[in-house]
Amino acid sequence: MLLPILLLSAAGFTVLTTEFLIIGLLPPMARDLGVSVSQAGLLVSLFAFTVAAAGPFLTALMANIERKRLFIGVLIVFGLSNVLAALSPNIWVMAVARFIPALTLPVFWSLASATAVEIVGPAYAGRAISTVAFGIVAATVFGIPIGVLISDAFGWRAAFWVLAAVAFAKALLLFVYFPQKRIVGETIRFATQLRVVRDPIVVGNVVLSLLIFTGMFTAYTYLADMLERLAGFDGKIVGWSMMAFGAIGILGNWIGGRMVDKNPLGTTTLFAALMALGLSFVTSVMHNHPLLALTLGLWGISQAALFIVCHVRVMKSAPQAPAFAASLNISGANIGIGLGAVVGGAIIDRLGLAALGWSSALILAAALVVAIVLMAASRRATARPAATPDAIAADACPAGTACADSRG
């Protein structure tokens, strides 16, 4: 059953490249569309906020749809949206091209993760999801940087044309090779999925993801701009630098996928602290290229790890509805992505580009406080004595009432 997981990983590459490619294209795209970089950065927020708003509801509605048909449909939508992006004459048409795929991204990522877990079992959820999530790492290693290199050589619109062709090719691969048989467990009722949001531990985990991704994307949204304006790199070096940033993330994906199954909150805390450390220094070492490489390496490892760690952590907090929990994590993460783009743009306008690093680190410090509180709450919940069979029977049949014997 490894083939379906690898196919989902390949599809995830296209889906996540579509979301994040624009980060590497912001400077030339903004110039061509006649807007500022911070205004173009709002397209990142539009995509992210759409994912956050629509994700849980659409995922809950589509959780029981035959998976092959659903995944192929998502890729076709992404292909058509990238065609529209390549043809966009202004920022408003580009906004439509960003809005449409944002509706389907959380459905794909939530159900692809749940499908992988259903294939291997919950004990190996971290490893299975990290295999699917390798598509995210590949998007940062190859997708975004190659898109930047294509943009530098042929224009930013060419990058979207290539991505559209890749999306249609992946849809064809799924059509030919993905199993037709529905790879799902028992059907989960819509109401059962919605009840997950009443669990404070689940909600706390989603808030933690929100804060982490806000801190992450306050800086990452404008990484290409930082490398161009602060480090003095041209478009080609920016592309290769972002490829190296993503490549080191392979290590983070591998480590995070193996650590998260043992201690999800502890692993989150570790990598969030490491990323805050890297971001604290990143803008101050822009002209010292060896130190810049080390700092970007620490940031890249932590960021790639946190993509998978946050996802698995929230899914494990709601084992009764993991796909819906995954969609909640995607919503929280994308609210963070959108807020990060907005906050980062505001910081650039008010404090300057060099303030992005330490500002992001302060947001991650707030996330660490939430993680510590959640660890304490989780320990208290685990320490509560489990209900005994006699207590359950007493609750079901209070004194003075007649209950039928369960054995008839």
Automatic annotation (TrEMBL):
Name its cellular compartments: Cell membrane
Q: Which GO terms describe its cellular component?
A: plasma membrane
Topology relative to the membrane: Multi-pass membrane protein
Q: Which Pfam families match?
A: MFS_1 (PF07690)
Keywords from the named record: Cell membrane, Membrane, Transmembrane, Transmembrane helix
Q: Name one GO molecular function term.
A: transmembrane transporter activity
Where are its TM segments located? 41-63, 70-93, 99-120, 132-150, 156-179, 200-222, 237-256, 268-286, 292-312, 324-348, 354-377
SUPFAM superfamilies according to UniProt? MFS general substrate transporter
Q: Which domain of life is it from?
A: Bacteria
Residues covered by the Major facilitator superfamily (MFS) profile domain = 4-383
Protein's UniProt keywords contain Signal: no
**Gene3D superfamilies noted in UniProt:** MFS general substrate transporter like domains
Keyword Transmembrane helix tagged: yes
Which CDD domains does the entry mention?
Answer: MFS_NepI_like
- Extract the PANTHER family matched here: PURINE EFFLUX PUMP PBUE
Q: What is this protein called?
A: MFS transporter
Q: Which organism is it from?
A: Bordetella genomosp. 1
